[in-house]
Amino acid sequence: MRIVIAPDKFKGSLDAAGVARAVADGIRAVRHDAAVDLVPVADGGEGTLDAALGAGFERRTTVVSGPTGAPVAADWGLRGDEAVIEMALASGLGILPGGIRDARGATSRGTGELIAAALDAGARRIVLGVGGSAGTDGGAGMLQALGLRLLDGAGAVLPGGGAALARLVTVDASAFDPRLAEASLTLATDVDNPLLGPNGAAAVFGPQKGATPEDVAELDAALARYVALIADAFGVPGAADAPGAGAAGGVGFAAVAALGAERRSGVDVVLDFTGLRERLVGADLVVTGEGSIDEQSLGGKTPVGVARAARAIGVPVVAVCGRTTLDDDRLRAAGFVRTWALAAREPDPEVSMRDAARLLREIGAELAASLPVGDGAVRAETLTESITS
């Protein structure tokens, strides 16, 4: 019996590797003969670097400008000429000093400094996983770190933050890092919002970053000015309307418009660099999951992406989660032959989160006990019937 365990994190409780280990320990306690392959995965946001490190990338650390400009030590991954950068580690809400949010002034500069560090290390294929950003600067800080000069009417360099873009008069790309022309960048995000307007970065995500209604209006107007000048400088009219331009406070726009990035589903990108599709070949069963399996999950988050890849080659998939808001019919339609939720075993959320590893071991043991016993290959239909009976 060969089982691939490929979950995302249970946010606030266990990282993806911890989830995979707990389920594997439960399975092995009952089925000593099971061959278990652990493949922690993510959807392009938080946990993407951990997935890369688990796939053989080397951890690198670079001191960069954090979202307020204060220095932070940000990790990233390198494997040959390929780098993986998780934006939140350099420019995210989670690393704001004291947790104090600054929607108008927070910058993405540190993310650009990580890209520069990756180029310095020889990377020419760069995966940029975005999500959890602290600012709404349209990726201006990221581009400034790569040599783009953003100047006001007096010729002075603009400070960081989206609000400052209201004073933007000149975009000077003469010192833009020439190595970017030789590199390919993949923008890993499932956010499909445009940059501007009622569905844009400021309106939809600004309040999460501390923006008041007045801040949202100010930021949207400043971004509109910035877009017009970036379009002239790089010859990319319409990039602000592209799906994903509003991701990470507009870093999606800058990545596509100025860096020539290809936008892809975050989970598909992670499945590629972890080699999960290849590791599914010959598997009898796949276990996936995340903290909450809900409507957002159906939009293409990790468990559904894993299930889609497994179903394509006829491998049954089961899911584990902290909780689910979907009924059994919708879970089956999403590709899971069975789903275990920690909340069904421990209704107190605090206890469930604290004891997630123990509960996942119990679920792993229950799953293992339901598997058919015997040598040789197991038909998918037989395995599914055994698990669900």
UniProtKB/TrEMBL annotation:
GO function term, MF aspect, one: kinase activity
Pfam families to which the protein is assigned, alphabetical: Gly_kinase
Top-level taxonomic group: Bacteria
Keyword Transferase assigned: yes
InterPro entries per the UniProt record, alphabetical: Glyc_kinase_flavodox-like_fold (IPR018193), Glycerate_kinase (IPR004381), Glycerate_kinase_RE-like (IPR018197), Glycerate_kinase_sf (IPR036129)
Segments crossing the lipid bilayer: none
Keywords carried by this UniProt record: Kinase, Transferase
Alphabetized PANTHER family for the sequence: GLYCERATE KINASE
Protein family membership: Belongs to the glycerate kinase type-1 family.
NCBIfam families, alphabetized: glycerate kinase (TIGR00045)
Designated name of the protein: Glycerate kinase
Species name: Microbacterium helvum
Lineage: Bacteria, Bacillati, Actinomycetota, Actinomycetes, Micrococcales
